[in-house]
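FIELD: query
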Amino acid sequence: MRRKLHLIFILFINCSLFYSQDVNSQIDSVKVSIATNINFSTPASNSTKEATAGIGTLGLKFERSSFYGDVNFTVYSQNKEIVAIDSTNTKAFGSNLLVPENSSNKISNFYIKLGIKSFYKNVGDNLSPFNVKRFGLNSSFRVNNTTWIKDTLSVPTTINSFELNIDYLILNTLLFNTNEKIKLIMSFGLATRRLGGDYGLDSNTKIRNEFLGTEKLSFNGTNFGVRLEVSKFYGEMNITSFKRSQNIAGFSGNQSIVSLGLRADLTLTGKEVDPNRKRIKELNDQIEIKRLENELKENDIK
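FIELD: result
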């Protein structure tokens, strides 16, 4: 009985391995791209140079079935530091908190995005408005470092940003008779900002009021966005909402951000390493050896 159970267990493992190989063969194709991005973002309430982000990033992105990810680093920024125009104007710092990518061009400024989308394949407009294939989910984490300067005060500042969004695909079609795509995507989700670096030290508690008018380091809100992609070009508008009671100029309440950019990708294609593939090969070899042994025994009997 024990031997039979052992054989059944081995058969179950073998079937599982072959099933796993069959499933993985459908999803083991990975699309990896070297991504470059040029982006200009500005708050609608403050279009000064100090508040406008003009950055260039370099990184990698991947797509595997419905999963995707993006990691990039800032290699260029037009604003190396944020300086108040005068001693009474702190709006530049609130705008920087709103658009944290407006930071220095050090390698320590990076962005990570992971998501899942049901519309990773071509989805036409013949789908019903509430078809599940129109929806997706993504989360992103961003770290940006800069220096805030006001009068004689200067403090290195780190802004950590986290967002969790639900995406809805409004439009996905080809541009005329080309292979270039036009996409229109709407998103809604949660947004957070966390201030750190030397700015977040207890010894600097008193001077925080000089920059933002509050000693707070954590801010939670919501974000609504619409993004239009035409081939490698894109335009995006986001409306954020952080508590009005915080009363931070350029940040609190409903604020809109307009972004324009160009993204160029160098695509590579690879396959994931299947950890079961070696074991399956060994089992196939054992089966083939056993078959040959049985044939030799049958020939000897004859």
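FIELD: remark
The radius of gyration is 27 Å.
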